[in-house]
Amino acid sequence: MTEMLPSPASPLKIGTRGSPLALAQAYETRARLAAAHDLPEDAFEIVVIKTTGDNMTLINADKPLKEIGGKGLFTKEIEEAMLSGGIDIAVHSMKDMPVEQPGGLVLDCYLPREDVRDAFVSPHVARLADLPKGAVVGTSSLRRRAQLLNYRPDLNVVEFRGNVQTRLKKLDDGVALATFLAMAGLNRLGRTEVVQSAIAPEEMLPAVAQGAIGIERRGDDSRVAAMLEAIHHVETGQRLAAERAFLAALDGSCETPIAGLAELDGGTLRLRGQILRPDGSESLADEVTCLIADGPEAGRMLALDLRARAGAGFFDW
Description:
The protein is an alpha/beta fold. It has three domains: about 1-110 and about 210-230, 3-Layer(aba) Sandwich (D-Maltodextrin-Binding Protein, domain 2), CATH 3.40.190; about 120-200, D-Maltodextrin-Binding Protein, domain 2 (3-Layer(aba) Sandwich), CATH 3.40.190.10; about 245-310, Porphobilinogen deaminase, C-terminal domain (Double Stranded RNA Binding Domain, 2-Layer Sandwich). About 35% of the residues lie in helices and about 25% in strands. The protein has helices at about 20-35, 50-60, 65-70, 75-85, 140-150, 165-170, 185-190, 220-230, 235-250, 295-310; strands at about 10-15, 45-50, 90-95, 105-110, 120, 135-140, 155-160, 180, 195-200, 215-220, 260-265, 270-275, 285-290. The strands form three sheets. The protein has a five-stranded mixed beta sheet, with helices on both faces. A five-stranded mixed beta sheet has the order 7-6-8-5-9, with helices on both faces. β12 and β13 form a beta hairpin. It is globular, with a radius of gyration of 20 Å. The model has no long low-confidence stretch (mean pLDDT about 90).
């Protein structure tokens, strides 16, 4: 494969959004590929692509994501660039990815998963339980909103869109007393000093695939497939296969509050899942343990069971 490897004269192009976190993830991917194939980092070119979602978020900063088009708004232009040959691979935060990829594209490479927990961030309050009655909490996540209101229906939850830096500035400006961010993103940005406490999954089950980076490619690109195989983290892939099967059988969009987490222990996989009414008034949760190979089917069956228990209209706004 040596003759097919990229070089500074003919670099492999890595597509990404332009936020600091997206770039940090692209740099990590580049470093892992360079190390795995003993190549200089300039054999890889980072290509920043502005997405419809980036533009619409700036214009509609106070609207929920579902009202401006959903998760796909943040991947459309990147995936179009890959299909047209403008880039070779794309780096994504897996918790933000739709469960289905466009025809011709494959998502089967994952980097080792980071901390899955949510971080409680507040300049003034140490823990979620310490928030005063009626406190304003900012989040753009339907899952976090519903979990918060289920736990503390007295809280005033407001829309809080933007990248990590934007949300931290909103806190400093007093728009809200607290917010929640992914520990994984703060770790990758070196911003853990803002964390008041990391919230255990038993208290707040994370989003499906939270903490995982996925690398998308063209399905017919055998050179890239072989390169990515060298950096694929098998255990993360096994966990996400179960979690994303759970998500796909429920909904898979950004319009429903869903949480899920798979963990491995030897040859066994434990999957926890949760669905909530959007207003937080009801939560249904369960878990299943199975062989790792059975994870996707177990995820699907867990989802079907929760859907049956929820009944019609559970996710209605």
